[in-house]
Design a protein that fits this description.
Structural class: alpha/beta
Distance between the termini: 38 Å
Bound molecules: pyridoxal-5'-phosphate
Radius of gyration: 21 Å
Strand order of the largest sheet: 2-8-7-6-5-3-4
Strand content: 5-15%
Shape: globular
Largest sheet: 7 strands, mixed
Oligomer: single chain
Helix content: 40-55%
Order of helices and strands: EHHHEHEHEHEHEEEHEEHEHHEH
């Protein structure tokens, strides 16, 4: 049986070079970086090297990078930390299509007295910039808008958004978890104040992330304790994972453009093949402004879970929603916010590629998908209903 992994927006394989970079930090260089002795000093210098590697991928200064345990922690820190540093109960602005790691934080803050605006998107998943401007006219203080959507791959015009937000005098955070390592990002040119990233989406392990905080941005720490990460994030540093994240960022930077072109070619071939051969299928999301690795399609009248099970029998892994919501049959909040018809939402499948995918894997998927879809349509109780 084949082993075809098309679920890289959920998580990625740790790159062999990353594993290699991490290994010495388990039983050779295992000192506590805060210690004064040589054991500590040895590991500290590798953390600083990793900080430089992360910074360089996104155009930041190393001193503006703080290591965390994951993208979720970075998002929590950005939004909660900025609200706490602001004081009072400021107006928080986000979008309806954010990952739960932002959306539920904002809703939690709203339940504690902050005003909250969730800006909508159009049918192709594009942010309503008029609504964003209107919301900022009402004393907004903290804005959190993602760089690219993890379910559809739709990329927001983040430079334009950040300009609008900064003109209104607000703090701008962006959840760039799906975008880092896939798109060129340069925070020296894009005026975001904070940016979240996560290791396991770019071939580093799960359990490590980082937050970029522009110099001068007021944000309180989430974890209180020791003085690690210059007082911004207490807890003894996870040295092997931080080293792994640094190496993964270095690899991503080396291959960014060439990989984006290769992934786009494979993704476009998969998309064209599916749209040509399957009945009643639509593309979810803006076809132009999309991450090169992501394809989200809605198969009308069939259940995404049934497709995934048949894929699984063939060794193909994809996803029927965002990683964190799959496993529940709740329809995707992203597709609902886009107004995707109910008949397609339930049959929506996300394919997300990585640099480890091959053209042969695309051929293999295209060989089987039409048969699977035809078979499921034959047994679907809804297939006659063309609503
Ligand atoms: N933000 C987005 C857009 C994501 O896709 C994810 C994970 O799927 C996260 C945040 C959470 O990252 P982590 O799994 O590192 O907590």
């Amino acid at each position: 049986m084949r082993n075809v992994y098309f679920d890289n927006n959920a998580t990625t394989m740790v790159a062999p070079e990353v594993v290699e970079a991490m290994l010495p930090f388990f039983n050779e260089l295992w000192g506590n970086p805060s210690s004064i002795h040589t054991f500590g000093g040895q590991t500290k210098k590798h953390i600083e090297r990793a900080r430089g590697q992360v910074a360089s991928l996104i155009g930041a200064e190393p001193s503006e990078i703080f290591f965390t345990s994951c993208g979720t922690e970075s998002n929590n820190m950005a939004v909660r930390g900025a609200v706490e540093a602001h004081g009072g109960r400021p107006h928080v602005v986000t979008s309806r299509v954010e990952h739960p790691a932002v959306l539920s934080v904002c809703r939690h803050l709203a339940s504690h007295g902050c005003a909250l605006t969730e800006v909508g998107v159009d049918s192709e998943g594009r942010l309503d910039l008029g609504e964003l401007r209107d919301s900022l006219a009402r004393d907004a203080a903290i804005v959190s808008i993602m760089w690219a959507n993890n379910e559809t791959g739709v990329v927001f015009p983040i430079e334009q958004i950040a300009d609008i937000v900064k003109e209104a005098g607000c703090i701008m955070h962006t959840d760039a978890v799906p975008a880092v390592g896939k798109l060129p990002i340069d925070v020296s040119k894009t005026p975001v104040d904070m940016l979240s990233l996560s290791g396991h989406k770019l071939h580093a392990p799960k359990g490590v992330g980082a937050i970029y905080i522009r110099k001068g941005t007021r944000v309180n720490p989430l974890l209180l304790g020791g003085h690690q990460e210059r007082g911004k994030r207490a807890g003894t540093e996870n040295v092997p994972y931080i080293v792994g994240l640094g190496r993964a960022c270095e690899l991503a930077a080396e291959h960014l453009e060439e990989q984006a072109l290769r992934l786009k070619a494979m993704r476009d071939r998969l998309e064209a093949g599916i749209l040509e051969t399957c009945p009643d299928v639509t593309l979810n999301g803006d076809s132009q402004h999309r991450l090169a690795n992501t394809l989200n399609v809605g198969f009308k009248h069939i259940e995404g879970e049934s497709i995934l099970l048949m894929f699984d029998d063939l060794g193909i892994a994809a996803s029927s929603g965002s990683a964190c919501t799959s496993g529940s049959l709740e329809p995707s909040h992203v597709l609902r916010a886009m107004g995707v018809p109910f008949t397609s939402v339930h049959g929506s499948i996300r394919f997300s590629l990585s640099r480890y995918n091959t053209d042969e894997e695309i051929d293999y998927a295209l060989e089987h998908i039409p048969r699977i879809v035809t078979r499921l349509l034959e047994i679907s109780p809804f297939a006659g209903d063309r609503s």
